Amino acid sequence: MRLPRPRRSTFGVGALVVAGLAVTQSLDALLPSATGADFGTGAQRPFVREGIVGTPIALRTGDLTVKAVEGATTLEESGAYPVTTEAVFVVVHFTWKPQREKGTIAVAEVAGGDDRVFRATSIGSGRDGVTCPFPPPGVTAECTAVVELPRDALPGASVTLSTNAIDEGLDDVARVDLGVDAATSGSWGRGRTATVSSGLVGLS
Amino acid sequence: MSSDEAGSETGSETGSETGSETGRETVAPSRRSWLRRNRVGLVLLPIALAAALAGNAERLQTLWWEDALHAPQRPDSAGVVHFVDAYDDGHHAWPIRPALSLVSVARVDSLPGSDGEPRPVTLPTGAVLHKVTLHVEADPNMILTGCTLALADEDGTRWETGSRAFEVDASEPFSPCTPDDHPGPGWLPKDEQPVVEADEVRPAGYDVDSYVVTPADARPTEVWVWWDEPRFAALPITSTDEG
Predict the structure, then answer these.
(1) Distances, alpha carbon B158 to alpha carbons A102, A134, B152, in Å
(2) Do A27 and A111 belong to one domain?
(3) What residues are paired with B161 via a beta bridge?
(4) A135 → closest Cβ in B156, B158, B165
(5) Judgement on whether residues B119 and B183 belong to the same structural domain of the protein
(6) Quick count: other Cβ atoms within 10 Å of Cβ A61?
């Protein structure tokens, strides 16, 4: 059987299809990711702004500066009993300054070197959680995020901070590497005590 | 594709093998005839596109328009916003139609204590405190609880009351729109009707103060008052207000 000879318009249709695929492909590349469709995953994944300790990270709704990242096995917080762990607390001290409306940082997630993700939110568990006020625009808050995780998740792990606990999809989030490798993960923060504190800069 | 169509295609293909050059010239549609053949479709295409977009537009309403302050109501020549909004949860509905005007916006460093004496305020580093005085006129039976007030600059940056961004040995006013001791009628889901305590009846006209923290370099240009998004009253701050 011989194939029908294509008409000229067939080429036009073909070109349109290819153009459509090309546009879809470039949109796919522009948007965060291509797989999955759940809240905050796949194409609805957040825009990750990588940063380093001490340098402000500009997010869509404000500026975040990670002041220090430390490991600890004991947590102290004013007005609460100290908490200890057999695993390790990742403690992130940061400042947050919203830009246009009041706002806060509500979620901290540590993605381990493996596939596991450890998440803490402003609704704390009594052990880990994010403690951060809601400053007005242009006013800086000091905040602390604590995530408890097993030591074998530490090598290569990074911490991600975001403003929305329900759906961070398509919004900016800040990510900072913990700087822990396989050699240091066994001793990182062992026996140390970290302090959880928060408030507006200038207020007690 | 049906077998008939396939057959006729192949047939014409084999039959016109020798005269294909001339055949294509006579059969090839000119641009004009293509436009003419498809004119109905071409006219309908933008209409179909508009209809498809409109069919998805309810997302604009629920996810964008009603989710932020989009509909300002501005003052008349006397500086009064005759605000028009309504509360409606499908079971209970009432109008929110106060007349709002701005008395003053002034930088302050104290709040009145319970005895009326000023109490000094501690502010965050680089921040200042503004006292906003609003004049409200409304039917005393109208429910006016649950409003929010903010200072806003030209870019739409807004600083709201109730920020808890300062320390003082006094209590911040409860609502920016009703007097603390005479809030008038209120409503809670357990109530059949709005309720008002005898000693909390609201006067028909009154001034009410509220306090807003901004950075020292903020340049607010308007006072915004709202109950439910997207509607809000936008009251311009005249240059003499900020000392």
Answers:
(1) 8, 13, 4
(2) no
(3) B212
(4) B165
(5) yes
(6) 18
Do B170 and B221 lie in one domain? The reply is yes
**CATH code for the domain in which residue B155 is found:** 2.60.40
- The interface predicted TM-score (ipTM) is 0.78
Q: Which residues of A are less than 8 Å from B159 in CB distance? A: 102, 136-137
Query: Whose structure tokens read 């709002």?
Result: B100
Single-letter code of the amino acid located at A160: T
Q: How confident is the model over B130-171, as pLDDT tens digits?
A: 999 999 999 999 999 899 999 999 999 999 998 889 999 998
Q: How distant is the Cα of A52 from the closest Cα of chain B, in angstroms?
A: 25
Structure token pair of residue B37: 């053949």
Q: Residue B231 forms beta bridges with which residues?
A: B71
Looking at the complex, report in whole angstroms how far the Cα of residue A200 sits from the nearest Cα belonging to chain B: 6
Whether residue A5 lies within 8 A of chain B, CB to CB, comes out as yes
Count of structural domains within chain A: 2
Residue A111 lies in a domain: yes
In a shared domain, residues A89 and A168: yes
Q: Is the residue at B178 inside a domain?
A: yes
- Enclosing domain of residue B211: 72-236
**Residues A120-148: tens digit of each pLDDT:** 999 877 789 999 999 999 999 999 999 99
- Give dist(CA A99, CA B153) in Å, integer: 12
A24 interfacial to chain B (CB closer than 8 Å): no
To the nearest whole Å, the CA of A32 is away from the closest chain B CA by 21
Question: Which residue in A has a C-alpha nearest to residue B156's C-alpha?
Answer: A100
A201 vs B124: CB contact, 8 Å cut-off? yes
Contact call for A101 and B125, based on CB within 8 A:
no
Residue A25 belongs to domain spanning: 7-45
